[in-house]
Design brief:
Layout: H1 2-13, H2 22-29, H3 38-47, H4 50-55, E1 74-79, E2 86-91, H5 97-112, E3 117-120, H6 124-127, H7 129-137, E4 141-144, H8 162-169, H9 180-185, H10 205-235, E5 249-252, E6 254-255, E7 272-276, E8 296-298, E9 319-320, E10 324-334, E11 339-347, E12 356-359, H11 360-366
Helix pairs in contact: 2-3
Organism: Paspalum notatum var. saurae
GO molecular function, one term: nucleic acid binding
Protein name: Integrase catalytic domain-containing protein
């Protein structure tokens, strides 16, 4: 059992995997391991992960990114429509279309060539005159998507970890029933789970063409089946979630309106406070104890170590305010116009490891 636990921990919580779902974990592990009721145990392990229960959600409000030490505050996600292969590029919201065009050529054209068409959101960067002219020069038709949905993110890993996130994403796709790496390059990528294995045999000549044709037909078939499955899911009416007496749940709370740490609401920040019965604890005595089902999330396993939230001042409307409690470090960033002071701030109810760099001007305005 201890060996299984180590295998599951490595396949779920290491920096090479980044907390994948149970389906992806099973696809990774079944290549090398087997035990009785393996798939069921993997599903149970993934569903009971405390970090996943606190962070993952089906519907998230758009949010921005805190600046990293290198100044990035957004992630540009580029996905190939056919293979689902993705590129995650750290960018800044201050970038102009010319900068995005250079990144596009360096990161995409240099690896995959020039695409025939591109579907983009209707953000000003992508519909700017310069960007459209550049695409025309490269022989690309710019096709606008039906709605403007620029997906942003909250408190995520620093940009140094983006290659690992890209690696984890491209390692398996359920709709393809294979890894995007395999669809793109004709072979599976090497992971820590099969690090010691020799490389795969390379195919040349007519066999390569035959194998590629089979691969394309297989991908088309899986994509069509996945699209039909998704449509059937969306067409079905969702059953209401029913809670039983003595169930443990997470209660949704949110920062106070107008008071946001990092100047944004964190998409990936924990949004459910400690698991408890809706017999409210003493520090929530002022809160009405009847909650709509949308504010609750079932806790599948009560964690052994529970974060103490008694010091969090929850308002009657289930909001809370985070305040700076300590300055840990200071640095300056110079531009051609002025010098900007930054402070490393530890926030209330957070450890020093979760401290963030904030502009002096922001701190003076929000917390005079």
């Amino acid at each position: 059992m201890e060996l299984r636990k180590k295998i599951l921990d490595e396949a779920h919580a290491s920096v090479f995997t980044l907390h994948p779902g149970s389906n992806k974990m099973y696809q990774d592990l079944k290549q090398k391991f087997w035990w009785t009721r393996m798939k069921r145990e993997i599903a149970k392990y993934a569903s009971e992960c405390d970090m996943c229960q606190r962070v993952k959600a089906d519907h998230l409000k758009p949010a921005g990114l805190p600046r990293t030490p290198k100044g990035y505050d957004s992630i540009w996600v580029i996905i190939d429509r056919f293979t689902k292969s993705a590129h995650f590029i750290p960018v800044k919201t201050t970038y102009h279309a010319k900068t995005y065009a250079k990144l596009y050529i360096v990161r995409i054209v240099s690896l995959h060539g020039v695409p025939r068409t591109i579907t983009s959101d209707r953000g000003s960067l992508f519909v700017s005159r310069f960007w459209e002219q550049l695409q025309t020069t490269l022989g690309t038709n710019l096709i606008h998507s039906s709605a403007y949905h620029p997906q942003t993110s909250g408190q995520v890993e620093r940009d140094e970890y983006l290659p690992l996130a890209e690696f984890a994403y491209n390692n398996y796709q359920k709709s393809l029933e294979m890894a995007p790496f395999e669809a793109l390059y004709g072979r599976r990528c090497r992971t820590p789970l099969n690090w010691s294995e020799p490389g795969e045999r390379v195919t040349f000549g007519p066999d390569l063409v035959t194998q590629a044709e089979k691969q394309v037909k297989f991908i088309h078939s899986n994509l069509k089946r996945a699209q039909s499955r998704q449509k059937s899911y969306s067409d079905k009416r969702r059953r209401p979630f029913v809670f039983e007496k003595d169930d443990h749940v997470y209660l949704r709370v949110s920062p106070m309106k107008g008071v946001h740490r990092f100047e944004v609401k964190g998409k990936l920040a924990p949004r459910y406070v400690v698991a408890y019965r809706l017999e409210l604890p003493p520090h929530l005595a002022a809160v009405h104890d009847v909650f709509h089902v949308s504010q609750l999330k079932k806790c599948l396993r009560v964690p052994e170590e529970v974060v103490d939230t008694s010091q969090i001042q929850i308002q009657p409307d289930l909001t809370y305010e985070e305040k700076p409690i300590k300055i840990l470090d200071q640095k300056q960033r110079s531009t051609w116009r002025r010098t900007i002071n930054f402070y490393k701030v530890q926030w209330s109810n957070h450890s020093e490891e979760e401290a963030t760099w904030e502009q002096e001007q922001f701190l003076q305005i929000k917390y005079p």
